[in-house]
Design a protein that fits this description.
mainly alpha; disordered N terminus
C-alpha cells in the first residue's frame, strides 16, 4: 500500500471507501427510507426512533462519497454497533435456540457488515485513531 508519512490513503483505498459509503447509503435508502416517508402512527410510535437513526446514518454516508477519509468514523460506527448486536444479542439467542425467522433475517442483514472489513484502510485507522496523539483537552 503506497501510504506516505503524511497519513494519506492510497487512491485505490479512497475508491474502496467510496464503495463502502455507496453501499451503506443505497442499502439504507432502499431499506429504511420508504418507511420513513410513509408510515402509520403505530409504526412511528414503535420504530420511529430506530428508523430515523438509520435513515440519518444513510444520509450521512453520502458525505463519504466526497470526503472518504474524514468519514471513516461512520464506517467504524456501523461496524461497532453491528458487532455489538451480533455478540451481545444474536449470539445469546442462538445459544438458547431462540432464533426465529425474523431474528435470522435481522442477523443476516446485520452480518452483511463483513463486506466493509476489507474495504476499510486499517493501517490508517490504527495510525490515526489509535497511535496518534489525541486533540488537547485544554
Amino acid at each position: 500500500m503506497s501510504q506516505g508519512e503524511t497519513g494519506t490513503v492510497a487512491l485505490w483505498r479512497l475508491y474502496t471507501l467510496r464503495i463502502s459509503y455507496l453501499i451503506l447509503a443505497v442499502g439504507i435508502g432502499l431499506t429504511f427510507w420508504p418507511s420513513v416517508i410513509q408510515h402509520t402512527p403505530e409504526f412511528a410510535a414503535s420504530r420511529g426512533i430506530q428508523f430515523s437513526l438509520l435513515a440519518g446514518l444513510g444520509l450521512t454516508a453520502v458525505l463519504g462519497l466526497r470526503y472518504p477519509v474524514k468519514m471513516i468514523p461512520l464506517l467504524l460506527f456501523e461496524l461497532i454497533w453491528k458487532t455489538i448486536y451480533l455478540i451481545f444479542f444474536a449470539l445469546p439467542l442462538w445459544r438458547a435456540h431462540q432464533i426465529t425467522d425474523a431474528i435470522a433475517a435481522d442477523i443476516f442483514s446485520v452480518a452483511m457488515v463483513v463486506i466493509f472489513v476489507p474495504l476499510i484502510p486499517w493501517g490508517y485507522v490504527f495510525r490515526e485513531f489509535l497511535m496518534k496523539r489525541g486533540d488537547r483537552w485544554r
